[in-house]
Amino acid sequence: MSKKIMVTVMAFIAVSGLSSIAHAGENAAASAGLWAVALMAIACALAICIAASCTGIAMGYAINGAMQGVSRNPEAGGRIFTMLILGLALIESLCIYALLISLLMVFKIPALDATLEAIIKTIGG
Q1: How crowded is the C-beta side of 22, counted as CA atoms within 13 Å?
Q2: Does residue 68 carry a pLDDT above 90?
Q3: Cα separation of 116 and 29, whole Å?
């Protein structure tokens, strides 16, 4: 269990460290170079990846618990279903918030088209 917690904490630290580049100002690409913009894009991708993974795992556990509850007490199926839907909506909000923050970070990149072309030229594509 502690290994899972350690991996989660390290991923959170990595995403937090990479996403801090977004707060550098409007001229982030000019002042920090193309690598800063690339790291910000990677941070956005990691944020969505981690949020979607955690959302899927949490929804699986919630549905598992609801199914076990209904199988043990079928009369409580209506109440369990209501709580399940409410819980799934709250769990899904995590992924929606991560998507919103990632989109805000991506659109903070100035001149996104020119920056992407410069990154592709740098890579050699």
Answers
A1: 19
A2: yes
A3: 11
Backbone angles phi, psi at 18, to 5 degrees: -75, -35
**All domains of the chain, ordered by start, with CATH?**
2-123 (1.20.20.10)
Which helix (DSSP H) or strand (DSSP E) does residue 45 occupy? helix 34-72
Q: Looking at the chain, how many residues does it have?
A: 125
> What pTM was computed for the model?
0.58
Helix axes 2-19, 34-72, angle to 10 degrees: 140
Asked if residues 21 and 36 have their Cβ atoms less than 8 Å apart, the reply is yes
User: What value does the mean pLDDT take over residues 57-62?
Assistant: 94
Mind giving me the DSSP string for 64-116? HHHHHHHHH-GGGHHHHHHHHHHHHHHHHHHHHHHHHHHHHHHHTSSSHHHHH
